[in-house]
Inverse folding.
């Protein structure tokens, strides 16, 4: 094995001792490995974080593992393993941190229930209404006016116009323990808790990258193995809408999704496929709603889940675009 990278990290224990550990990256005939070693129980413990052929997945796994160890109190002897490790947080991140650390569970749950109902009524994903960290901040600061609500990061003009009264109706039922404006947060936020929170954000960021690379590998293998959307959705525990969006992204990135597209589209009646083709020719493929209105009557759509109809249109659009790209070559 060729050693590509090695760094030592140290952590001071509660007893005042210094514990040393090492993280390394190695390569053997195109296969990468990331290994963490540390003393324990009179011997050296080894933890293999990654073994595989993907450079991108290896780097994401390495960064995620290092972020976890930095959050545990380790410090590298040679710095620079995470490109943004020394970037300090700002006012907005302090508000986010305090909000998560002081989230009021009863109010937070009430806001989540409101979001669930609103998302269902508007046929949107819950995160499109408000993300969890925004609801946590609202539950921690308990705004009673629209001005106070808009001072919370992430709650802008569009959200105020659409949802301010709904949210304020809920928050006004709870006693507020702090004041507005929120400039006091910088003074009362515990520095150690804030530093730990910042490391946690890095950990979550790199975990998301790592999971994304692993998902890509799983999808590509599944396409090669002849699996369809049903099998893929169950295997990845992922709803079909997000899965189709990911397939579109992979196709744009240059991965060949044709085998999967052909399998799924072949299940559609030829007459329906032809109607979709003609609609795309007539109204273009930039937006799906005009295509849907061109292909299906209100009677045909009645009682059908729109997500499944839009899925057909997305797959057909993607397949036709691939065909046009080949013709243009």
């Amino acid at each position: 094995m060729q050693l590509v990278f090695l760094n030592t990290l140290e952590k001071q224990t509660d007893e005042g001792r210094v514990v040393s550990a090492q993280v390394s990256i190695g390569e053997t005939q195109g296969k990468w490995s990331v290994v963490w070693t540390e003393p324990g129980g009179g011997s050296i413990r080894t933890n293999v974080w990654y073994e595989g052929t993907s450079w991108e997945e290896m780097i994401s796994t390495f960064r995620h593992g290092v972020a976890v160890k930095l959050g545990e109190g380790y410090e590298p002897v040679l710095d620079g393993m995470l490109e943004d490790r020394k970037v300090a947080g700002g006012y907005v991140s302090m508000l986010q941190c305090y909000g998560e650390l002081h989230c009021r569970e009863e109010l937070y749950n009430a806001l989540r229930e409101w979001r669930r109902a609103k998302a269902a009524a508007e046929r949107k994903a819950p995160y499109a209404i408000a993300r969890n960290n925004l609801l946590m901040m609202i539950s921690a600061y308990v705004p009673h006016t629209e001005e106070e609500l808009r001072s919370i990061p992430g709650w802008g003009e569009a959200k105020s116009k659409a949802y301010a009264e709904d949210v304020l109706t809920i928050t006004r039922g709870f006693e507020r323990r702090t004041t507005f404006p929120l400039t006091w947060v910088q003074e009362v936020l515990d520095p150690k808790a804030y530093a730990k929170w910042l490391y946690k954000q890095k950990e979550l960021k790199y975990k998301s990258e790592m999971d994304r690379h692993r998902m890509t590998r799983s999808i590509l293998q599944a396409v090669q193995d002849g699996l369809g959307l049903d099998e893929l959705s169950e295997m990845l525990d992922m709803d079909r809408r997000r899965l189709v969006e990911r397939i579109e992204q992979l196709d744009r990135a240059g991965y060949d999704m044709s085998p999967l597209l052909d399998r799924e589209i072949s299940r559609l009646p030829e007459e329906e496929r032809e109607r979709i083709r003609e609609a795309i020719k007539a109204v273009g493929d930039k937006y799906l709603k005009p295509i849907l209105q061109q292909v299906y009557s209100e009677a045909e759509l009645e009682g059908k889940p729109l997500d499944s109809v839009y899925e057909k249109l997305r797959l057909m659009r993607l397949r036709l675009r691939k065909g046009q790209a080949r013709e243009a070559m």
About this structure: The mean pLDDT is 90. The domain at 91-185 is CATH 1.10.150.80 (DNA polymerase; domain 1). The chain has 16 helices and five strands.
